[in-house]
Amino acid sequence: MEYFAFQWHITDECNQRCKHCYIFAEDACKQLDAMTWPQMQDTFYNCLDFCEVYHRLPYFYITGGDPILHPSFWDLLGLMKEHHIPFTILGNPFHLNDEVCRRLKEYGCEKYQLSLDGLRQTHDWFRKPGSFDCTLEKIACLKRAGIRAVVMTTVSGTNIDEIPELIDTVVAHKADVFAFSRYCPTSEEKDVGIEPLRYRQLLADCDRKFKAYEAAGCETWFNKKDHLWTLYEYETGEFRIPENAQEGMIYGGCNCGNCHLTILPTGDVYACRRVQNSKVGNVFSDRLADLWVCQMEQYRDYARFEKCAKCELQPWCRGCPAVASGRDGSFYAADPQCWKEIG
After folding, report:
1. Residues 6+ apart with CB under 8 A from 242
2. Is residue 299 within 8 Å of 332, Cβ to Cβ?
3. Phi, psi torsion values for 152, nearest 5 degrees
4. Inter-residue contact 261 to 270 (CB < 8 Å)
5. How many CB atoms lie within 10 A of CB 179?
6. How much of the chain exceeds pLDDT 90, in percent?
7. Residue-level pLDDT at 215
8. In what residue span(s) does the Radical SAM core domain sit (predicted)?
9. Integer angstrom CA distances of residue 114 from 39, 152, 153, 266
10. Residue 77, CA distances (Å) to 38, 89, 103, 113 in order
């Protein structure tokens, strides 16, 4: 059976106010929401029901805010352990220590995702002073406990020139995984701030660096998360369209509508958290298995992609609809950083 991913925001509570955070992007004075413990239990079993109906294995990405700040955080992990369900934590570094990491591992935490959004000065400007050094320090803390340390970067026009050197820093601190995705514009800022060919150049620069590190036996795995990597590797000959590919099939690209849902602390269910207008229901009142059929179909109409529907890579790529939606308000708009010319 295949896995189905639930990105579950259990609380908005956070000890940072990152400048590019989508939680506070629309309303800097928003109420800080958090699920109650009974609501968390109901949500958990709603997710298991979904997986039973569609014959999927559940996988949870538990996040916030900073999920460890929720008073029932450890109760939730106990529920995960009771049902033998693996999970990843997406959180901040500040509350991690050897004892906390040991306990996370005991409950079944496979990976812990930290963020680095530039070199020290840039990252601390995005997040808060001291955050950069603290994040790097906690990589070793996680690894000592046997938890894979994942470093994720949000790329924008502000930090794009720092990404190659940031890769060197992450490798030097022996992170297990490094990946980046692009900033999703909010209502106040409608552009990622990167021209398409500049973004392609970043991919080329990173590709050379990744290959050099891999040849040297580097232990960091470079996750090419952005789907525009498919376009880049198609152009360089590393990706070829399979001869047995069937017309109308979707083989890769954006997981929205395929194997992913996001649940917020209010219970609101989103097709993708990075797509601001993608609410499809509420987990407290709706059965997720029903939402998947009735409400999520609108995100599986692949012929509606304005640019991608005309591209031979549509079944494998489709760029990032969240970035397109942030700028143009449409899930099916052209990816602003896609450099491919479509006739």
Report:
1. none
2. no
3. -120, 135
4. yes
5. 15
6. 87
7. 98
8. 1-219
9. 27, 6, 9, 24
10. 14, 10, 10, 16
User: For the segment 95-112, what is each residue's pLDDT rounded down to a tens digit?
Assistant: 999 999 999 999 999 999
pLDDT at 187 over 70: no
Q: What is the mean pLDDT of the chain?
A: 93
C-beta of residue 86 within 8 angstroms of C-beta of residue 110: yes
C-alpha–C-alpha distance, residues 140 and 130, integer Å: 17
Single-letter amino acid code for the residue at 265: P
Report pLDDT for 127. Answer: 87
For residue 55, give the 3-state DSSP assignment: coil
Tell me the residue type at 229: W
DSSP conformation class of 14:
-
pLDDT digits (tens, 9 = 90+) for 46-76: 999 999 999 999 999 999 989 999 999 999 9
Pull the structure tokens for residue 324. Answer: 């397109």
DSSP assignment of 291-326: HHHHTGGGG--GGG-TTGGGSTTTTT----HHHHHH
Two tokens at 244? Answer: 């047995």
The pLDDT of residue 188: 55
The burial class, CB within 10 Å (0-12 / 13-18 / 19+), for 220 is buried
**φ, ψ (nearest 5 deg) of residue 87:** -155, 160
